[in-house]
Amino acid sequence: MWTYEKRLQFPVNIKKTCPKTASLIISQFGGPDGELAASMRYLSQRYTMPCKEVAGLLTDIGTEELGHLEIVCAMIFQLTKNMKPEDAKTAGFDAYYIDHTSALWPNAAAGVPFNACEFQSKGDAVTDLFEDLAAEQKARTTYENLIRIIDDPDVLAPLKFLREREVVHFQRFGEALEKTKLKLDEKNFYYFNPEFDKQFAKA
Amino acid sequence: MAERTQLLEQIQQIGFQIDDLTLYLDTHPLDREALDSFTQAKNQRYQLMQDYAREFEPLNLYLVCPDTNNETGSYCKYPGQKHFTWSDGPLPWDNQGGV
Ligand SMILES: [Fe+2]
Predict the structure, then answer these.
(1) In this predicted complex, what is the ipTM?
(2) Contact check, Cβ <8 Å, A3/B62
(3) Predicted confidence (pLDDT) per residue in B24-43, tens digit
(4) Which chain B residue's Cα is nearest to A179?
(5) Nearest-CA distance from A191 to chain B in Å?
(6) Is residue A41 within 8 Å of residue A121, measured between CB atoms?
(7) Rounded to 5, what percent of chain B is helix, strand, coil?
(8) pLDDT average per 10 residues of sequence, chain A (203 residues)
């Protein structure tokens, strides 16, 4: 069950219309390493996790990612809400405008629609936690790519906050992997699937 | 307006402390110092949320109280009338609500 809180996790107050920037940032909404994929990845993986604390962590990080999705969408909204027809013609945003006007629709910066294949849920705790560690690094790289080419300080502030959260999530998933290993046969952590071959997991 | 912004900023800051401490405690459930910080932040947040709902709009559904919410009557479509105060206030993604 979720409860909505009517505020953003980090303030977004962008004054300058810029569809070009929106068309780049949208990757962190519906792109391969975006917040939608992150949230759905963690919230899908948690059910079969053999370690209860790790399932709890996936719930809490998955929930925070929903808040990040909201921050990214608020940024795109504020960058495009006062668009004039001239702005809509901006290369890179024009095609999106034809199909969605200024509404939010998840796709990658290159225009590829959101795809559920972006969120891996394999049903093996070790595999899935490695996936999550990589996902956090990929999201961090994407934020760094954005930060490198964007100048508007109103856009940079939330992007830097979101980048830092990826670093923290990576740290926590690393700890989750260590906790999971404590429950496995130390002779060979990677030989069995602890979510299926339950006889090899410690009580 | 200044007070709304200030109070919302405080809620945002204390809320973030709780978000960050939650993830830390998920993997370090016995850390005494973190537990104390969590309790302190949680109590502070509770008070701020109550204060904000009394002066402005309720930020979650459980703070909706048509008789006591939004004393300042800001961002309100039905001033002076008993109404569902959940709809008061700006939207979080609007510039003035994003603070
Ligand atoms: Fe993350």
Answers:
(1) 0.95
(2) yes
(3) 999 999 999 999 999 999 99
(4) B27
(5) 25
(6) yes
(7) 55, 0, 45
(8) 96 96 97 97 96 97 98 97 93 92 95 91 94 98 98 98 98 97 79 79 68
> Which residue segment(s) compose the domain that B87 sits in?
2-98
Which CATH number is A19-200's, of 3.30.1360.30, 1.20.1260.10, 3.30.70.2860, 1.10.357.10?
Answer: 1.20.1260.10
Full-model pTM: 0.95
Measured in Å, residue A158 CA sits from the centre of ligand 1 at 14
* Tokens of residue A25, six digits: 């940032």
Task: Residue A172: name the closest of A203, A201, A131, A129 by CA.
Answer: A129
Please answer yes or no on whether A73 and B19 come within 8 Å at the CB atom. Answer: no
Q: Does the CA dihedral A122-A124-A127-A133 come out positive or negative?
A: positive
In the reported structure, the alpha carbon of residue A92 is separated from the centroid of ligand 1 by a whole-number distance in angstroms of 26
Q: Determine the Cα–Cα distance for residues A113 and A92; give it in Å rounded to an integer.
A: 15
How many CB pairs lie under 8 A apart between chains A and B? 80
- Whether B27 and chain A come into contact, CB under 8 Å, resolves to yes
Structural domains in chain B (count): 1
pLDDT tens track for B57-68 = 999 999 999 999
